[in-house]
Amino acid sequence: MKKISDIMGDQTLLPIIQADNVEDGVAIAKAMAAAGLTTVEVVLRSENSAKCITAIKEALPDMIVSAGTVIDRASLDAAINAGADFIVTPAVTERLLTMLVDSGLPVLPGVSNVSDIVLAREHGFREMKLFPASLSGGAAFLKAVGGLFKDTKFCPTGGVSPENFEDYLSLGNVFAAGGTWVAKPQWVADKQWDLITEACSQV
Fold first, then answer.
1. Half-sphere exposure of 192 (CA within 13 A, CB side)
2. 3-state secondary structure 35-93
3. Are 38 and 120 in contact (CB under 8 A)?
4. Residue 192 to residue 132: CA distance in whole angstroms
5. pLDDT tens digits along 139-191
6. In terms of C-beta density within 10 A (0-12 exposed, 13-18 middle, 19 or more buried), how is residue 96 classed?
7. Looking at the whole model, is its pTM more than 0.85?
């Protein structure tokens, strides 16, 4: 199974795209690409989310587009059919993890406690998303579990901001962090794509 950290390379921010329509989704991705980002996450939270993944991949063939908020068979199938390059989940269950492994795609499973980490490890995962990071102990939690799971790395998401981004990245078991602050809903509503590019460039 290919590591998400290998897919992302030197990129330490996994920017999250939330769009109500395909046009905005593509515009957000283009603004992020203009800042030099090559990997994004599109969360499956609207009826057009899967279409956004397909459209972004068509508009930006070199961009790696992951599907987030995959929680069941329906959302996993939607992500696969849309052409997602890898899968991101907010949580784990025995059934979901089995489906994810069987999908054959790289996966970043979401965990929020030590039991989740052990469960994900039992299915072969060594890279995980801590979510919601700020409510699950944040950097202090990741620092605490570093000694327990020496071969496991994380991408914290949820409550990550410019103020704590570097705190997370300074930890040896963090390879990236996910964030929505680089594409604020008001910027999207106002079509201020340059502000997205600027925010991404500052990471």
1. 12
2. CCCCEEEEECCCCCHHHHHHHHHHHCCCCEEEEECCCCHHHHHHHHHHCCCEEECCCCC
3. no
4. 27
5. 999 999 999 999 999 999 999 999 999 999 999 999 999 999 999 999 999 99
6. buried
7. yes
Supply 137's token pair: 């102990």
Residues near 140 by beta carbon (within 8 Å), at least 6 away in sequence: none
Tokens 């046009």, located at residue: 23
In contact, 10 and 203? CB cutoff 8 Å: no
Q: What six digits make up the tokens of 67?
A: 């599907």
CATH number for the domain whose boundaries are 11-195: 3.20.20.70
Positions marked active-site: 41, 129
Name, in order, each residue with C-beta under 8 angstroms of 59's C-beta and a sequence gap of 6 or more.
Answer: 26, 29, 30
For position 137, what pLDDT does the model report? 98
Q: How far is 130 from 1, CA to CA, in rounded Å? A: 20
Residue 102, Ramachandran bin (φ over 0: left; ψ between -120 and 50: alpha; else beta) = alpha
pLDDT tens-digit readout, 133-147: 999 999 999 999 999
Domain segments of the chain as ranges: 11-195
